[in-house]
Amino acid sequence: MAPKNKNPNGENVVPEVQQKKTQALILKSSDGEEFSISKSAAGLSVAIKNMMEDDCAGGVIPLPLVDGGTLARVITYLNKHAEDGASDEDKRKFDEEFLSGMEVDVLCDVALAGNYLDIRGLFHDVCQRIVNGMKNKSVEWVRKTFRIESDFTAEEEEQIKKEYAWAWEGVDSDAD
Amino acid sequence: MDHKVETQVDFLQCLETDVCLYIMSFLDDTGDVVRASVVSRSWHRFVIANGLAKRLCLKAFPQLYNITDVVIASEGTVNSIEEKTNNAMEWEILERDHKVYAALLQALTRSKPGKPIYSAKFVRFRMGHPKSPREIGSDLHHLPLQRPADDKFVWTYTSPEFPMVQENRLQPFELPKPVLCVGGYLQIELLGRVQRQEMDGLFYICVCYVRVLGRPLFPAFEMDMVEPDGKLLLKYYPENLTSALQSSSSTEVPRLRHLEAEMLAERLGLLEDLLRGIQQGPNNPFIWDEDDDDEINGGLVL
Question: Cβ contact (<8 Å) for A167 and B24?
Answer without folding.
Answer: no
